[in-house]
Structures
1.
Amino acid sequence: MSGFTWHGGRLAEARVHYGGEDWIDLSTGISPLVWPGVEGIAPDWCRLPEPSELAALERAAAAHFGVEPDHVCTLPGSEMGLRLVGRIFDMPGRWLVPSYRTHGEAFADGLPMETWNGAAERLALLLANPNNPDGRVLAPDRLKPWLAALEQAGGWLIIDEAYADAVPSSSLAREVGDNRRLILLRSFGKFFGLAGVRLGFLVGPRTIVSQARKMVGEWPVSAAAIAFGRAAYRDRQWIDGTIEALGMRAAALDAVLARHGLRAWGECPLFRLVDCEDGFALFEHLARQAILTRPFEENRRWLRLGLPGDEAALARLDKALASG
C-alpha cells in the first residue's frame, strides 16, 4: 500500500501519508448515527459511581438484552470480556474465522476453525454473531443445537454479540440461564455511535457473572459510561428508529457498490465487505481521495466499508468509485 501500514482505524496516519484534510472515515463498524442524548447528560466527575448507579445501568442493559439483571456484568468494553473468558475457562478454545484478532488471543490453548460441525466436545467455542468482517449472521435456531452439543460434553458456547443491537433477531439472549453453558458479550458503543465511552457487558450464568465482577472490581467503568448507557438503553423509540434507519442506509450503500460492480457481503447493517480483484488497490484509490476503508493482510481481495455518515458522504464515495 505504497508504504502505508494498516494499524486499524489510524485516520491521523492516513492523513499524513496521503495528505488531505476533509477525510471520510469508513474504516470502522461504528454507527454514524450517534445517540443524541449525550449532550443532555452531565456526569459527576468529582466522585466515584455509587453501586446503585451501576446496578441501574445493568437493569437498563438487561431489559434491552432480554435477560435478568443478575445475569449481567458491566465491563470497560466487550474486548475485556473476551480476555476474561480465556482466564475463567480452563479448557481448549476454538474460534470461528474470519474473526477479530482478540478472538485468537483469548485462549492460551486454542485453534482457529473455518467451520464447526456441531460436535459434542469439551471446549470453549467462540464466535461473533453478527460476524466481523464478513457480516455473517447465524440464526439462533442454528446455534441452539451447537450449544446443546457443547453442554452435553461439558463445553461452553461464547458468542461475541458486539453488533447484535443492529440485528436483534440474531441474539441468543433468551437462552441465557444458570443451567446453560452460554456466555454472551455485548458492546454499547458500536450501535449507539459512542465507541469512546468504552462500555460492554458479559451476560451469562450468575456463577460466571460473579467471577467476572470480582475480576473487574467495584468500579469497572466511568460515571459517564454509566450515565450514557443507562439513559441510552431506555431510549426505546430512538433504538427502534435507528435499527430501521441503519437498514435503509446499508441498502443505499449496497446500491452504490453494485453500481460500480462491487458485490456487498453480510447481513450486519453497520458495514459491508466487498471481494474484488485487488482490495489493496481499491483501498489506495479511495485513500487518495480522502476516504479511509479497511483492507486485510490475510485476504488481499477484501475491503470493508462502514456506513457513510450522510448523503453527502455517500455521494463522495459514489464519485470516488466512479473515477477508478
2.
Amino acid sequence: MSSPVQATSAGEVFRINESIPLSAALISHVAAECNIRVLLIKGPAATLVGARPERPSLDLDVLLQRSDLNTLLDALELRGWEARIREVSEAFPDHSTTLINPGWPSDIDVHWRFPGFYEDESEVFERLWSARQSIELGGRTAWTLSRNDGLLVTLLHALRSPAKGVLHEDVSFCLREITASPREHYDRAFELGALGPLGPVFAMLPETRSLDLGEPPLDWVLRTTAQRSATLRLFHLIEIPWSRKPAALWQALVPSRESISWHDLELRDTNHWQQTSFRFRRLWRSLTESVQTLKEVREIRARIHK
C-alpha cells in the first residue's frame, strides 16, 4: 500500500527517505525485544538484495505472522505510533495496517498477508522466512526476503497497481531477472500460491508457457480491476446476502469519521457540519463517476464468471 504521505519539496523527499532506514532499525529492534519474527519487504530492503530498481521510498513495509501483529502494534504504540483507520470495504479481506507517528515523516505498513500469495498465510510466511537473508539498514541488522522472493513481491506489487507509471519499470526489471531462470521462479510462485496472479507473466516465457498457470482468485481480480473505492463498495453490495445490504449501504453513504479521514488525517478534527459537507461531496463524486463504476463492476463479474 502506498503511504498517503506526500513529498512536497526536495528537502521533504530527503527527510522522508532518511527516515526509512531509521524505521527499519526501529522495527528490527522492537522485533528482537519482543522475540517475534519480522521481514522487511519492498522498498530499500528489496533494492539492497537486487530485487527492485533503486528509487526513493515513502514508507516502510514489513511482514509478520498474524499471531504476532498485536505484540508489534502494542510495542510501537508505546513509542508514539498509532494505527491509521482505513476506509472499510468487505469486498476483500484486509492484509495490512498502516502505522503513523505525528513526529515521524513516513509511515510503517505492517502486513500479515501479501496480496498475490494465496497459499495459507502462515505457510507463506514460513516459506519466506526459511529463505530469508540479512541486511543492514539504519545501522542495525535486519531480516528481509531472499532475492528471488523479493522479485516476486516486486512484480506482484507492480501488477496490482498498473495505473502507476513508475511501476512499469519494476515489471521490466523483474522480467529481465526472471528470464534467466524462469522454471525456478515458476516453482517458487507455485509454492507461495502466486501462479494465478503471475500466470500472464509465465505465459510470456517459452520455458513455462505450457505449464499449469492457474486462475487468479477473486481477491486478485478485484485488486487489479477496481480503480475506485466506489466500485468495491458497489461490488460488495451486490454480492452480499440481502440481510446485510442495509448496513453496507449505510456504511457507504454515511462513512464514519475514521473512514473519511483515511486519506486526510485533518478530517478527524473537523466538526459535524464539515464532515457532512465532505460526505456530500464524496457522494456527488461517486454519482458523477457512476457510469465508469458500473463498467468496472461488469468487467469484474465477467472475469469471475469467465
3.
Amino acid sequence: MTTAAEHRADHDLFIDTVHGLCQDPGARRAISRSRGRDLSHCADAHSYLAEHVFRHPIRKYAPRAHYTVAALIAATSTPHTPDQPPPQAPLHAGTAAGTPPPTPLLPVTPASPPAAGFPPRTPQGAAGSPADDTADSAGTADPPGTAAWGPAGGTTSGSEAARLTGQAWRRRPDLGRTLAEAVLRRAIAHDSATRRLRALGKLSTDLLHPRLPALAKLLDQAGLDTDFAVLLDDLVWWDTDRARITSAWTLSFHLAVGGDTPALTDLAET
C-alpha cells in the first residue's frame, strides 16, 4: 500500500523524467502526439514512456493520466518546472547546502496489506479514494526509521512530517489557481474561465483529457507555469474523487481572482 506522500513524490519524479526525455527533440515530438488521446492511439509515445509507466508499481495503475501529462509537457513551447515549489526542499530535488536531508520514502509495496489507519490506494475507477493528508498523519505511533528533519534542523515524527508535506503540497497551484492567474493577466476573460471550470468538472476522464491540450496551450502562451505534478495527481484520482477535485479547483480559482490566496487546506479538513 502506498501513501499520499509517496504518490506525490513519485509524481514529481515522473515530471522530472519527462522533462529529461523531452530534451531529445524526437522524443518530444513523439510524446506530444499522444496529447488528448487514449492509449490505443499513443503508439509513438510508447517507446519513450511505456517502461516508465507500465513497469512502475505506482504509475501502471493510472497510465492514461501519466501519458496525458507527459504529452502536455512535451507540447508546451518552453518546458519548465513550476516556479512555486513547496517550502523547504522539494520531494524530487536535492537539499540546500547545510540543510539535513529528509529520510527517504519507504519502499513502495503495493501488494502488501494496508497499514493501520490507511485506506488502500485505488486510482482510475477502482473502488475507494485517495488517502488524504489527515489520514497520513493520524493514528498509530511512528514505525522505526520514520523520523524526518523538521524546522531549525530538529527532527519531527513521521506523522508530523507527513502533515507538513501535505501542507506544502496544498500550497502548490492547482489548475483552478493557474487559470485564475490567466484571468489576472487578461489572457482569458473571467466569465470564460468560470465556464471552462464548470464544464471540465462535469466530464469523465475520456472527455476531460482531450480538452486539456487547448487549455494547457492557452496557459503556456500566457507565460504561466502549470504545476504538472499537481495536475497529474488530480487526473490520477479524477474518476474516483472528481467532486472534491472540482470543488478544490473552483475554490482556489475564486480565492485567487479575488486577490485572497492563503495556503489552502484540504477541503476534507474544512
